[in-house]
Description:
- By secondary structure, the chain is an alpha/beta fold.
- The chain has a domain at 67-370: ABC transporter transmembrane region fold (Up-down Bundle), CATH 1.20.1560.10.
- It has 26 helices and 10 strands.
- It has a 6-stranded mixed sheet, sandwiched between helices. The chain has a 4-stranded antiparallel sheet with strand order 2-1-4-5.
- Helix 7 packs antiparallel against helix 15 (327-349), helix 8 (113-163) packs parallel to helix 16 (351-370) and helix 12 (211-258) runs parallel beside helix 15.
- The protein starts with a helix and ends with a helix.
- The relative contact order is 0.09.
- Bound molecules: adenosine-5'-diphosphate and magnesium ion (MG).
- Adenosine-5'-diphosphate is lined by residues 166, 396, 399, 403, 421, 423-429.
Amino acid sequence: xxxxxxxxxxxxxxxxxxxxxxxxxxxxxxxxxxxxxxxxxxxxxxxxxxxxxxxxxxxxxxxxxxxxxxxxxxxxxxxxxxxxxxxxxxxxxxxxxxxxxxxxxxxxxxxxxxxxxxxxxxxxxxxxxxxxxxxxxxxxxxxxxxxxxxxxxxxxxxxxxxxxxxxxxxxxxxxxxxxxxxxxxxxxxxxxxxxxxxxxxxxxxxxxxxxxxxxxxxxxxxxxxxxxxxxxxxxxxxxxxxxxxxxxxxxxxxxxxxxxxxxxxxxxxxxxxxxxxxxxxxxxxxxxxxxxxxxxxxxxxxxxxxxxxxxxxxxxxxxxxxxxxxxxxxxxxxxxxxxxxxxxxxxxxxxxxxxxxxxxxxxxxxxxxxxxxxxxxxxxxxxxxxxxxxxxxxxxxxxxxxxxxxxxxxxxxxxxxxxxxxxxxxxxxxxxxxxxxxxxxxxxxxxxxxxxxxxxxxxxxxxxxxxxxxxxxxxxxxxxxxxxxxxxxxxxxxxxxxxxxxxxxxxxxxxxxxxxxxxxxxxxxxxxxxxxxxxxxxxxxxxxxxxxxxxxxxxxxxxxxxxxxxxxxxxxxxxxxxxxxxxxxxxxxxxxxxxxxxxxxxxxxxxxxxxxxxxxxxxxxxxxxxxxx
Length: 629
Ligand SMILES: Nc1ncnc2c1ncn2[C@@H]1O[C@H](COP(=O)(O)OP(=O)(O)O)[C@@H](O)[C@H]1O
Ligand SMILES: [Mg+2]
C-alpha cells in the first residue's frame, strides 16, 4: 500500500513541477522513520518499470522556504503599530455608549447641566482622538505598502524573469498580482480585519451591562460569523474561477498583441476574437454568479445585523420593564452590538477583494518558492570554459516524457562543439541547459566544475554568450542591444560587432549604432537580426558561447562571417557550442554530438563522427559516456 503510494509519488516527482515536490516532500516526511525507503525506491529496476526516470537528487529545488512570508515579516513593525492603534481606536469607540449611559441614567435623573457639558466635552475629545488615530493607522498601512513594494517588487520581477524560461503565460500578471495584494493591505477591507479581534471587547462590556444582553450579543456574533463562513463557501468558487479565466484571458491578450502582423495578414481576427472571447465570457459568467451570491449574502447579513440591533433594544426594554436594567444600558447595548457586528459586515462586503488578494498572495508566494533567489554576493572569477555535461535528464513541468535522457559529454576550453540532429531532438533544450536558463531534472551542467543552474546568473551571465533560436532583440538602440544594456564604452560593442562581421552594415544605417531596432528587432531583416544577436553573444569576451542555429537566416556572406567569428573565438580560447547543419559551420568544429530523441547517439572528434555517420553505424550510448569522462 505504502509502496504504491510512494511509487506513484515518484511518478509525480518526475514531473519536476515544484508544486508536486511539496507532495513528495510530505511523503518523505510521512515515511521519515523508514530511512532506507528513498534509496530503495531510487533503484533503477523499480523506476524503469513505469518507463520513468530517476528524479534529481542533486540540483532540484527541494528546499522551499516561504520567502514571501519572511519578506512580509520584515514589515511586521508596521502591522504591530497598526494593531496597537486599532486597540486604542476600539477603546475610544466605547466613549459613545458610555456617554449615552451617563446621560440617560445620571444627567436626566439628576438634571445636572454642568455634568452634561463636561460629559459632552469629554466625548468630543475622545472622538477627535479616535478620528486622529484612524487617520494615522491608515497612513501607517500605506507606508507599509510602499515599504513592501520596495522590498519585494524587484524580487518578484526577478522571479518572473527566471520563471519565464520554462513557462509561458502572462508574465506581467504576476506583478499585477503583487500589486493587488499590496493594495489590499492598505484598503478598507484590512481595517475591518484589524477591528474584528476587538469585537469580544464590546461583547464583554454588554455582558457587564446585563448577562442576558451579553448572551444575546454573543449569540448574534456567532450567527453572523457563521454567515460569513457560508458566504466564503458559496462565493469563493465562482470568484476563483472568474479570476482564473480573467488571468488566462489577459495572457492570451498579451500574446495576441505580440503577433498582430500575422493576425492581420491572414485575416485571423475573427477566429482570434472567438478564442479570446471564450475565456472572457467564462470570466463574466462566473463573475455574475459570484456577484449575485455575494449581493444576496450581504443583504441577508445586513438584515440580520439591523434586526439584531433592534431586537437587543427590545430585550433591553423588557429588562427595563422588569427593573433589571436601566434605559441607558438598553441603548448602550444596542450601539455596542452594532459596533461589534460592523466589521463582520464590512468584511463580507469587501469579500471579493479579500479573495483576489488571497489568490494573488498565494500565486506570488508560489512564484517566489519555485524561483528561489540565487546567490548574488559571490562573484566568481572568469571561467576558463571547460564544459562538462553529466547524465543530463530533463522532464518538462506537467509532463512525464523526458526531452533529454542521460546526455553526457565534455569539452575543453577553446574547443568548438557542433550539435547536430533532427528537429525536435532536444538540441535547443540542451542549449538552454548549458546556459543555465533551464534547471535539469537530473544530472548537471558544469562550467569549470561549477553547476551553472546554481551559479549566480548575473555573475555567470557576463561570461556567457547565448544566441537563442528565437532571437530576442529589445526595443532599443543597436548599441544597447549589443552591449546587453550595460553602461560602458561603445568600443566594446563595436569590437563585438566587428567580430560578428556586422559593423560595416551598422555604420551604413542612417543612425548607425543609435538606430532603434523596434519591438523584437522589427526594422531589421532576419539575417541582420541574427548577426546583431551574434554580436551580443560575443560581447565582453565570454568564456563560453552557445549558438542555437545561428545560420538559419544567413546568406553566403553571413555564413562566411559566422565561420570567421567562430575561428576568432577559438583563437581567443573561448569554448563554443553551436547547433547547425550547414557544412561550412560543421567544417570548423572540433567535436560533434549527434542528438536523437533526447539521447546522445554519437560524440567524438569531427572526422570520427563524420566517418561513422557515413558508414551509419550506431554507437551505443555508454561508449559515448565513457568518451566524455
Ligand atoms: N517547455 C517544454 N515543455 C514541453 N515540451 C517541450 C518544452 N520545450 C521543448 N519541448 C519539446 O521538446 C522537444 C525538443 O525541442 P527542442 O529542444 O526545441 O528541439 P530541437 O531544437 O532539437 O529542434 C520538442 O518535441 C518540443 O516540443
Ligand atoms: Mg531547436
